[in-house]
Amino acid sequence: MCGCIVEIAMLVMGIVALVKGRIPLTRTRVVEGTAARVVGLILMLPLPLALGFGFIYGVGIGVSAAQQGKSQIDPKEIEKIQTTAKFVELGLIVGCALTAVVVGAVTARPPKLKEDIDLDEEASARWDRRRPAPDEDEEGVRRHEREKEEGYRPDNPQGR
Fewer beta carbons within 10 angstroms: which end of the chain, N or C? Predict the structure, then answer.
């Protein structure tokens, strides 16, 4: 029962990572882009793999019992089958979770905040409008004096 809840939680987290393309690893690290989608797929794997394993395992046991001429399976044998299935399911959950964490840890980086992106664009725009200081070269001095006379403004480089 607990395994099923963990599988469903991993499935939901995997779908969210697949759709958003972003999954937090820690408070200061985040996985984004293709790596986040790969982590999402890995997180979604335990449920379908467990269902597939259970189906194939059950069919195999049923075929084996039919070949032996049994119409029913012994209750003690059913307990062994359930125990095996539980351990396989647990192994799938732990294996997929560890794989997702390792892939995420290898590809994680600090998150890029929206404010950082805006500041980068503003700094870039300011740098493009930058004029050399008067003491940088003689041409810069002449240009500076000319711009002062013409009323140069950074948002209007022609001085108009």
Answer: N
